[in-house]
C-alpha cells in the first residue's frame, strides 16, 4: 500500500472518529465540551496583526507551514483548491507561514507557486504556533463556527479526499 493511500485512509479514519462514538457525535454536551481555541494573533497580507476571533461564524482550517517543508508545499496545493471550491461557503483556510522572513516570504512563495485562493499570512516569531502547541510542520487545526477545536492534524493531508470533504460539509452544516 502506498504512503499516499495509507495517509488518506488514516486521515479519513481520524475524521470519522466522532462517528465511531455516536453519543459524542450527536450530543450537544459533547459539542460544548470541545476546547475553545484562544484568540491567536497572526500577520495579514499588510503585515498587520489579525485576530483569529475575526473568523468566528465560519469553519476555519488553520494550517501551519513553511516554504522549506516539502510536505507543506504539497499540502498547500490541496488547501488552495479547497478554498477555491468552498469560496461561497463560510469556510476560511488560513495558511500561516512559519518562515523566518514573515509576510514577505509568504507572499513571494504563494505567488511563485501560483496559489491564487490562499492569502499571505504569517506568524512572526512563531508565537501563534507555540500557543497552538504545534510540534512539527505541517499542522492543521480545524475550528468550528463557535471557535471550538474540532481536530488537530499533524502531517500533510489531501484535502480533496471525498471523506474529508464530506466531513467538512457536515461541520459547515452544524450551528
Summarize the structure.
With 175 residues, the protein is of the alpha/beta class. Helices cover 42% and strands 19% of the residues.
Report on this model:
This protein has a 5-stranded mixed sheet. The chain has a two-stranded antiparallel ribbon with strand order 1-2. The model is unreliable at 5-27 (pLDDT under 50). The protein has 175 residues and is an alpha/beta fold. It is built from 7 helices and 7 strands, in the order αααβββαβαβαββα. 42% of the residues lie in helices and 19% in strands. It starts with a helix and ends with a helix.
Q: What is the fold's blueprint, element by element?
A:
Blueprint: H1 3-20, H2 22-26, H3 28-33, E1 41-43, E2 49-51, E3 59-65, H4 70-85, E4 91-97, H5 102-112, E5 121-122, H6 127-131, E6 139-143, E7 149-154, H7 162-173
Task: Looking at this protein, list some descriptive labels.
175 residues; 7 helices; two-stranded antiparallel ribbon; alpha/beta
The CATH homologous superfamily name equals Glutaredoxin
| Helix residue percentage | 40-55%
Number of helices: 7
Order of strands, main sheet, comes to 5-4-3-6-7
Distance between termini? 38 Å
**Got a strand count?**
7
How many domains comprise the coordinates? Answer: 1
Largest sheet: 5 strands, mixed
CATH topology, by name, is Glutaredoxin
Q: What is the CA-atom radius of gyration, in angstroms?
A: 16 Å
Q: Percent of residues in beta strands? A: 15-25%
- CATH class, named Alpha Beta
| Uncertain segments | 5-27
